[in-house]
Design a protein that fits this description.
The complex is a heterodimer of chains A (366) and B (608). By secondary structure, chain A is of the alpha+beta class. Chain A is built from nine helices and nine strands. With 608 residues, chain B is mostly helical. In chain B, strands 1-2 form a two-stranded antiparallel sheet. In chain B, a hairpin with a 2-residue loop joins strand 1 (269-270) and strand 2. In chain B, helix 5 packs antiparallel against helix 6. The chains are: A alpha+beta (366), B mainly alpha (608).
Amino acid sequence: MSQSLEIGIAVVLILAILVLIFRIQALVSVMRGSYRKRAGLSNKVNAILFVVFALVGFGTFFWFSFGTEYHLPVSSSEHGIHTDFMFWLTMAILVIAFVITHIFMISFIYKYQFDENRKAYFYPENHKLEFVWTIIPAIVMVVLVYYGYRTWNDIFKMAPADRMEIEVMGQQFNWLVRYPGADGKLGSHSYKKISPDNQFGLILEDQTGWDDFAPREIHIPKGKPVLLRIRARDVLHSVYLPHFRVKMDAVPGMPTTFWFTPIQTTAEKREELGNPNFNFELACAELCGRGHFSMRYILVVDEPENYKKWVAEQKAWAEVNREYVVKTIKPEYKDKLPEIKVATPDAPTVAPADTTTPKATALNIK
Amino acid sequence: MSSTDIHLHQHTAHGHAHDEHHELPWIRKYVFSEDHKIIAKQYLFTGIFWALIGGAFSLIFRLQLGFPGANLSWLKPVLHGWIDNGGKLDPDFYLALVTMHGTIMVFFVLTAGLSGTFSNFLIPLQVGARDMASGFLNMLSYWFFFISSVIMLWSLFISTGPAAGGWTVYPPLSALPQALLGSGAGMTMWLVSMALFIVALLLGGINYITTVINLRTYGMTFTRLPLTIWAFFLTAIIGLLSFPVLFSASLLLIFDRSFGTSFFLSDIWIDGAPLAHEGGSPVLFQHLFWFLGHPEVYIVLIPALGITSEIIATNSRKPIFGYKAMIVSMLAITFLSFIVWAHHMFVTGMNPFLGSIFMILTLIIAVPSAVKAFNYITTMWRGNLIFTPAMMFSIGLVSFFISGGLTGIVLGNSAADIQLHDTYFVVAHFHLVMGSASFFGMLAGVYHWFPKMFGRMMDEKLGYVHFWCTFVGIYFVFFPLHYIGLAGFPRRYYQFTNFDAFQTFGDLNMFVSIAAIFTFAAQMLFLFNFFWSIFKGRVAPANPWRSNTLEWTTPLHPEHGNWPGEIPHVYRWPYDYSKPGAAEDFIPQHIPYSQTPSSNLPGEKDPD
């Protein structure tokens, strides 16, 4: 108690001293009559401070920008290489504009400080000059728009036919991921079918969904285009893969897609960064509520043969949840159920060696 | 009554003084006043109040971001249950703070506080009118804003907290109380408050537009209007065309929330049950929101640019360079501001073709913006610069306008935006170009027109200290955020500990938070200076900045009606600074050419 009293007294005293300094300063300026001068010493001090500010500011800016590893590592997706190039190209132009305009402004500030004996130059307009500096940014913009337009259209053109597809679904506050299984087709779903046992809302009678599997990590093979089929079941989310320069909102009621081609495996990235624990991560980039900051999911890029091995180990969702499926599915489909098999796309069917594969970990109910 | 009084003067233009003016009761003079100068001050004080709350909120969430895991139990006496027993900030309240910081700063401070203050104060004084076209609507405008403020303030104290779905209030998050604590009563109050706010803004805006068009004094043609007035005029037009769209969006959201409609909701399963909503589109809301939201950026920025034009010309003792180009640029920005909105939505699932169209339109807007920046700088070239505090803040604005505006070019590029969208790079961008630049415009305006508002001068030295602390502080806060954004950090994260990718930059985040506290503390200098000078400041001379515009021809403390005698006539544009041949380095607008034969350019003569 006494301590806070002391702090209180100290604060009051400091404030009193500051007010006193302020008053003395004001009275001195009245005594000197400096307020009657149009521009006094302060004018010079401020002009010099602007120059100091610019020098220190630019120094820090360049030192930090070129001396620090602040940005993300090189893109691990093909399109990301292009968007990164565009970003840095634009940035180079912007930095030039930033520096030049500031150099002009600061040097004018210093050079044209008030002088009682000088008159400013009456210079209301110069059409030639204005035309030139309208046309230059316009040309730069045309160039940037041209490159941006091409890159954007490349990214959003139809995904190649040899792509693989994965469904990513956002919910408060985690991701659910589903692979189409051996038939290459995702089973249909309806939000009305969602239940704690059926998190995807699968329509069980749709046989294309019987071999779908829901792993706890996303695995994708290097070099193969991947189409993400994105949806959300409660509020907006956004699929954000920072290392792949991928971002697309997940919208309830409106499926979205994004396709990209990974060009680096997780192992290669670990080696590049010298970090054996590195993992590609999936984050949420659209505010979705209290747990928005915690929607993490791991993505692994494998060499194609390892990917095949991994797929072979996966158990179909309907297999893992067989009890629920048998109980819920319409009776006339029950006979067909034994057809549900382990997902094996084009790899030879092997009995999963690892029987400890966790039971559909995507089903972590909040 | 007093408004008819004013009209009488307008039309008959008798030379006699405003003598039949009878004394109004105190409450009509200072509270329910129809005097535009009083209403302007009411907006200013309310704006300052909100700025303090909005700024304080940002400090609390900056504490969380800069010092994750710090014990904040010392805030418990103020925040009660929002700090848990371990001294941690509640994540729901973190989102509420972020949301309210945005809402308060964008709408209550930089729209109402900036436009409300300076459009009200300067339009009649600078166009030469006794008051706004309708003093009564003007009064209503403030009091609608006041009620809206009370409701928003009230929402801060309810148990489930204020709205927390981001200042953009995207549904479904904002529509479903089961999705977010703040989407309950807090969100209802947000919507009601915003609806009233829009009413206030429209009433004000209609007045601004009408006054500029109809009540200009004799000789005040559009090409003789100060750029401030052009800016306020265009801002009001933007507001009038765009805010009703937010009004409809809010209305539809209210329907979705309370009456079971499905404008924005579809296919939702939440809290253990599917909802009945079908066929709505969350993306539709985003289109409606940004149809206001993007023009809103210019509603906030253009008045600041107008104020800056005036201050830079006055204190460079030079005409603003390219007066007509400045007007054309503002007109272009006004028009373009309506057709760029979807650049906020490149990765929302909107058709990619729209993305490419909006990228093209967005980058076009860089051209008039660049012209404006060039013109400011050229105005200072070969000037005779006097660094008043207002001039310093205007220079600061130009700097922020450039550094923040440039990064807009990379964000407006849809391909590059895929990665940058919703990261701290965006936060850095708009805080510099729209937040800080407009804030500096507002401060510049206060320093410059304080003598007209209160008849006294603010302390200059304190103004300089305030400027340097704020200018350096703001760059310290927002420049590092670019790097944090390039490292991929997403916005609106309570903490970054969950991701390996976001483990870097703990030190930079701490630095930003300390800089934010420093910058906020520096604003206390301003507050002290402001309130001290209202009562104890040196009495102002009639025209302290040797400025050309009409407001400085009024008495030191203008009454309701502004000029005791006849309204001055205008004979020239407002930028005859340092005209060759003139004795002084300024010739006010109301001086006829016949009195300045030595400096008249060919063709400059008074109308017969």
